[in-house]
Amino acid sequence: MPTTSSAALQVFAGPRARARLAERGLSPADVRVVPGAAGGPKGLVLNPLDRFIFGHWLAESTQTLHLLGASIGAWRLACACLPDADAALAQLAEDYITQEYEHAPGRPPTPRAVSQAFGAKLQERLGRRAHELLAHPHRRLHVFTSRGRHLLRREGRLRTPAGYLGAFLANAASRRALGGWLERVVFGDPRDALPFPLHDYRSRHCALGPDNLAPAILASCSIPFWLDAVHDVPGGPRGAYWDGGITDYHLHLDYAAMDDGLVLYPHFQRHVVPGWLDKAWKRRHRASALLDNVVVLAPAPAWVATLPGGKLPDRADFKAFGDDLPGRMAAWRRAVAESQRLADEFAELVARPAPLLAQPLP
């Protein structure tokens, strides 16, 4: 792997993972879990890397592979479970780049308009192929959502802002206190349970099936105030479901409890932040013992500075570009094209028999 300051890809790992990589490098047989973070358009820069990993590098793997996704991460990893993963992931990037919603001139689209259009797209791309997706012989999808409690159990013009204010204040005290307002509900492939417990936060497991695949992913992508909540996801407890990133922004979970194997984490940054409401609490961004066996693949900050605007694509681009759809599309297409370097450098890294020297997770 390139080690110069001009490298686009950086590799970080927990202590157990670092020792294993230094001893024998990284092979497809090592990987047991792949998480997919929430983060909206930031996930676009991972598209070429995803296409290489799922469409090629892991294509011949026969071990069970658990794919854990929140928000855009759930969409990405659902595509990775389709038989034509490379093509499905390429289509995801195109759909995300070209998304457009009806709106009044100079005004943002309403949450309902976004939810209806985006839900229809998910049904077209994933819902109609749910049986194929869930029949993958080795890949198991787990979709993370956030179900409201108390004031947040149903969506409402007044109760939703009040409920999220309460959630913010509770989370300032602790993540466990946040569980009084929002419950983690994971819709997972019923063939195999997660290979580690979810004891860090109030959680519930529900079976993922053809009838709730698209609603669960829509719920996992439903950013509060940007999209409507999804109420009463089939197969889950009644209530309002929102973006899985609220409770599990980057899925900082107890991976170290796994009996064997590594967690390969293609990520748009080096830190693994527990929940979206933890963004302001920098001390919660530090690596913990839970990430002992995790390998994070992240873009180098110097490379990110070469992208349009000197940053990753993000939701602020919708406002910055306004009605200039061609301008936003061009910027995001360039970001995805430049991100081919991440895939190329990872391909070079895993093709070498030499040990892989990773940096400690920060």
Task: Describe the protein in words.
- This protein is α/β, with parallel strands linked by helices.
- The protein is 35% helix and 16% strand.
- It is globular.
- The relative contact order is 0.21.
Give the secondary structure arrangement, pairings included:
Elements: E1 9-13, H1 15-24, E2 31-36, H2 47-57, E3 65-70, H3 72-80, H4 85-97, H5 111-125, H6 130-134, E4 139-148, H7 159-173, H8 175-178, E5 182-188, E6 203-207, H9 213-220, E7 230-231, E8 240-242, E9 262-266, E10 294-299, H10 301-304, H11 316-321, H12 325-338, H13 340-351, E11 359-360
Parallel strand pairs: 1-11, 2-3, 2-9, 3-4, 5-6, 9-10
Antiparallel strand pairs: 1-10, 4-5, 4-8, 7-8
What are the salient characteristics of this protein?
alpha/beta, 13 helices, 11 strands, globular
Mean pLDDT: 96
Spans where pLDDT lies below 50 across 5 or more residues: 1-5
The total strand number stands at 11
**What is the helix fraction of residues, given as a range?**
25-40%
- Using the CA coordinates, give the radius of gyration: 19 Å
Q: Tell me the number of helical segments per DSSP (H or I, 4 or more residues long).
A: 13
Principal-axis shape: globular
Structural class based on helices, strands and sheet pairing: alpha/beta
Range of strand content: 15-25%
Distance between the termini: 20 Å
Characterize the main sheet: 11 strands, mixed
Give the ordered list of helices and strands. EHEHEHHHHEHHEEHEEEEHHHHE
